[in-house]
Hints:
The chain is of the alpha/beta class. 54% of the residues lie in helices and 12% in strands. Helix 4 (92-102) packs parallel to helix 5 and helix 8 (183-193) crosses helix 11. The longest helix is centred in the last third of the chain and has 19 residues, at 157-175.
Amino acid sequence: MEVLKLKVPLAKVQFLAYIYLLVKSNNMKNLTPIIIVDDHKITRDGIRAMLIGNKSFVLVADVGSGAELFETLDKQVPEIVILDIGLTEINGIEITKELNQKHPQIKVLILSANTDEENIVSAIKAGAKGFLSKECSQGELIKALTCVSHGEEYYGESISSIIYNSYLSSIKKNNVNKPELTAREIEILKAFSEGLCFKEIADKLCISARTVESHKNNILQKLDLKNTIEMVKYAIKKGFIEL
């Protein structure tokens, strides 16, 4: 009698058996469905193995590209997509943007080896709800999935440090070479923001219109602004006037 040899990998067999048992026991409806998008099969298999037996999450599909993902979404819409950035055809940032446009209910958790500042900031701007390094532990992955599934954002410890440093850098950059306004310049700024003209400001402050113009030019130069509209926006942003 010839023995039938299966060519299906053991991990796949275990996964399919797990899904079968879930469906049979009717427990699948209580689990958060997840899809993995990564062009490395070993990564997909590893995450699948981490989730087998988990009582909160279930992997319903794993694909290797953005095209496969959107094809899968026609049949199965998960709550969370675990997404790599460095995909070959369309990268994870662009996929995140498209998901937010077409499937805003899906939460994206980035899992990537590309943890430089540019990728992290781009992912956040694209709408990702979390970012993890591929060096994260199983415990941290589950923690991130739990936070994201509850509507929170999650960034790994190393990622949070990069975000914080980026924030500090932007503050320093925005503040560099921007001297403070004098008390008189603040008066002029407020007056223009209230819609007063040169003559009205001059009469109000008991100075000449030419002096008002000189102060305005100094304000524009100090703050690197182009016109009165930008001055008003600055005054509102800094709380010099209230709407």
